[in-house]
């Protein structure tokens, strides 16, 4: 049996719902062997849940990339929170050096409930260094508006316009995701491959417990690609997976409710 492997280059969410933790839990559910290169560590102030973001030293990020890229190899990779222009450039150099493909770029710009963690120069660096190397980029409507510089995306037509612009910036496929803002009560995603606009729709589940949904979605797509599925098949499967993870979301404390990736697998202890 071939064991498929995936790498996530992303930040650590100490609370476990997003970032590298969401990615690994998702890979596990797909039976894909997960590996990590950690870029930042996000901690929360216990009384207020204000976030603090600690970057990992650039040399340590590079050493992790070398370990996995030179020492092991993998079937697909994703990026999440990268934290600095230097890290974005570093990742792009390694993608070129190791001639990597099946690359999913999740252009993380903010954590829910925090200030911007990504400065405008990081958005510019993602446009210059990562979009041209992406097999798929997975912005939500806010991130898409920043990458495409369209201003707020409020209609399905604007989603199509932004997807076209982001594709022209070099990403082979663009998946723009919305949850309830454009069509109330619906979670509508748009996949564009340069030719066809394809819509994926689900009922938006009534819940605030959605922390980590974006990471979970891009990790599920990456795991699908690692298993040899097409982008379209991987996106379609991930929509089902993330919808289920959201419907299983739960309150972790008074501030945050993460999606839950594993609820359908092992019955909980009574
Ligand atoms: O959900 C975005 C996100 C991504 N990565 C890390 C995070 C968060 C939000 O909290 O902490 C590490």
Automatic annotation (TrEMBL):
The keyword Transferase applies. InterPro entries: HMP/HMP-P_kinase_dom (IPR004399), PM/HMP-P_kinase-1 (IPR013749), Ribokinase-like (IPR029056). GO terms for molecular function: kinase activity. It comes from Paenibacillus polygoni. The keyword Endoplasmic reticulum does not apply. It comes from the Bacteria. Belongs to the ThiD family. This is pyridoxal kinase. SUPFAM superfamilies: Ribokinase-like. Residues 13-259 form the Pyridoxamine kinase/Phosphomethylpyrimidine kinase domain. Pfam families: Phos_pyr_kin (PF08543). Its EC number is 2.7.1.35. Keywords: ATP-binding, Kinase, Magnesium, Metal-binding, Nucleotide-binding, Transferase. It is an enzyme of class 2 (transferase). Gene3D superfamilies: 3.40.1190.20. It catalyses: pyridoxal + ATP = pyridoxal 5'-phosphate + ADP + H(+).
């Amino acid at each position: 049996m071939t064991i498929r492997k995936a790498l996530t280059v992303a930040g650590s969410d100490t609370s476990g719902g997003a970032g590298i933790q969401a990615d690994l839990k998702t890979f596990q559910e797909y039976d894909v062997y997960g590996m990590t290169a950690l870029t930042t560590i996000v901690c929360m102030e216990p009384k207020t849940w204000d976030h603090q973001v600690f970057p990992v030293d650039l040399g340590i990020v590079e050493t992790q990339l070398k370990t996995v890229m030179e020492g092991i190899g993998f079937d697909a990779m994703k990026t999440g929170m990268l934290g600095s222009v230097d890290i974005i450039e570093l990742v792009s150099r390694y993608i070129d050096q190791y001639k990597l493909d099946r690359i999913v770029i999740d252009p993380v710009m903010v954590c829910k409930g925090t200030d911007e963690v990504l400065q405008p120069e990081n958005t510019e660096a993602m446009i210059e260094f990562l979009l041209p190397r992406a097999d798929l980029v997975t912005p939500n409507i806010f991130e898409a508006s920043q990458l495409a510089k369209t201003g707020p995306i409020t209609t399905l037509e604007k989603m199509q316009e932004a997807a076209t612009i982001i594709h022209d910036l070099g990403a082979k496929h663009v998946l723009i995701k919305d949850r309830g803002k454009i069509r109330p009560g619906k979670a509508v995603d748009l996949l564009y491959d340069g030719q066809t606009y394809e819509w994926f729709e689900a009922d938006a589940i009534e819940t605030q417990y959605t922390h980590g949904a974006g990471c979970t979605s891009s990790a599920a797509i990456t795991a699908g690609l690692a298993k040899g599925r097409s982008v379209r098949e991987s996106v379609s499967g991930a929509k089902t997976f993330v919808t289920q993870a959201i419907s299983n979301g739960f309150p972790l404390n008074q501030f945050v409710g993460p999606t839950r990736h594993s609820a359908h697998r092992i019955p909980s202890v009574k």
